[in-house]
Amino acid sequence: MRKLLNVLYVTSPDAFLSKDGENVVVKIEEQEAFRTPVHYLEGIVTFGYKGASPAMLRMCSDNNVAISFLSNSGRFLAQLTGPVKGNVLLRRTQYRLADNLDESTRLSARFIMGKLANSRNVVRRFMSDHCSPDYQGPGREVSWLLAINLGRLERCRDLDEVRGIEGESARAYFSVFDDMILCNKEHFYMQGRSKRPPLDNVNALLSFLYTLLAHEARAALETVGLDPFVGFLHRDRPGRPGLALDLMEELRAYMADRMVLNLINRGQITGSDFMRKETGGIILKPDGRKTVLEAWQKRKADQITHPFLEEKIPVGLLPYVQAMLLARHIRGDLEDYPPFFWK
Questions:
Q1: Which of 242, 245, 271, 332 is the most exposed place for a label (fewest CB within 10 A)?
Q2: From the first residue on, what is the mean pLDDT of each consecutive set of 10 residues in the chain (343 residues)?
Q3: Between the CA of residue 138 and those of 132, 155, 167, 178, 179, what are the distances in Å?
Q4: What is the pTM of this model?
Q5: C-alpha–C-alpha distance, residues 121 and 343, integer Å
Q6: Among 319, 265, 246, 255, which residue's Cα sits nearest to residue 121?
Q7: Residue 87 in 3-state DSSP?
Q8: In the beta sheet, which residues pair with residue 275?
Q9: CA 51 → CA 48, 70, 218, 320, distances in Å?
């Protein structure tokens, strides 16, 4: 099993990344603020505009350390990875499957099954912890709808049908997300999903964590030799990592949505951690971003038993394990792709 290494998050907009020997060095205003050996890292995510030296980029490329560049507000800008890895036959098979609409529909349905099952478990866990046994509110209705739609996915005939079920389920799920927010309702509420830009604090948190998850998914797919830009549900679009977005679907609820609810309901983050931009979008302030990143790294170190492998792994390895299982299925080693189902 692959070892869980560290992701370095550089949150200062004035930081510049450089190389010293085999070390990544973070400098702020020409002063060294942090350094770490490159072999301790599996990725770097940097927020800001100063950039990195060519020598540091080359070192990270040679050591398979993916670097994601984000704007100060958390918008994805670009990612650097090393040379294409993996067996060319694996990628050629991936491309053939992506060109086959029946195969794309089948795999897309598997990703969305994981998404719906895990979203349903978020709702069911909330009802179990905070509602009476005879509760018959909207959460119960959404749970039933997601269960019905899981069955419908088994019979999907084309991608549009999968997308329709996913869209209906997402709208229902987010319609009760506000009900699961128990604290500080003055600052944390949700009237629906808004993305570009996020229009409230909850959506800003979701978008930020989804960006982090996208980095993890894309790096995992590169590691196992798959092309993160050629997806099955998310079709080809220049610059869009379609397969990374596919892989994210089943992990969003478990890795990101639950963390948003925990951060808010435990009072780890407050309304003062956000600011509204002139365009109307909401972003995290630097201190709030630091709080979220610390919680994200801590969560990634938690141990779970993977339901398919039946082995204990850190949560942070979930994207890699699912990418590995997908690669094994595409190679023909597994009869079908097993989505991650949170138990």
A1: 332
A2: 67 83 87 86 77 88 82 70 72 95 95 96 86 74 94 92 95 92 88 83 93 89 88 87 95 95 92 86 88 90 90 88 93 93 87
A3: 13, 26, 18, 11, 9
A4: 0.82
A5: 8
A6: 255
A7: coil
A8: 283
A9: 7, 10, 21, 27
Residues 265 and 34: their CA atoms lie apart, in Å, by 32
- Give pLDDT tens digits for 204-230: 999 999 999 998 898 889 878 899 999
- Would you tell me how many other CB atoms lie within 10 Å of the CB of residue 240? 14
Neighbours of 152 (CB within 10 A): 16
The SS3 call for residue 23 is strand
Asked if the bond preceding 319 is cis, omega within 30° of 0, the reply is no
In which element (H, E) is residue 131 found?
none
Q: Evaluate the CA torsion angle 175, 121, 342, 270 in order and state its sign.
A: positive
7 three-class SS = strand
For the chain, domains (ranges, CATH) are: 6-80 (3.100.10.20), 88-331 (1.20.120.920)
In whole angstroms, what is the distance from residue 115 CA to residue 123 CA? 13
Query: Look-up: residue for tokens 């670097």?
Result: 67
C-alpha torsion 227→228→232→238, nearest 10: -100
Cβ neighbors of 322 (< 8 A, separation 6 or more) are 220, 247, 250, 251, 339, 340
| Cα 235 from chain centroid (whole Å) | 18
233 secondary structure, DSSP code = S
Residues 327, 243 contacting (CB under 8 angstroms): no
DSSP string covering 34-81: EEEEGGGEEEEEEESSS-B-HHHHHHHHHTT-EEEEE-TTS-EEEEE-
Distance CA 316, CA 254 (A): 12
Render the burial of 69-79: b for 16+ CB within 10 Å, e for the rest.
bbeebbebeeb
Q: Within 131-200, where are the H helices? A: 138-153, 159-175
Q: 158-163, long-range: CB within 8 Å, 24+ apart, which pairs?
A: 158/101, 158/105, 159/101, 159/104, 159/105, 159/108, 159/233, 159/235, 161/105, 162/105, 162/108, 162/109, 162/112, 162/233, 163/233
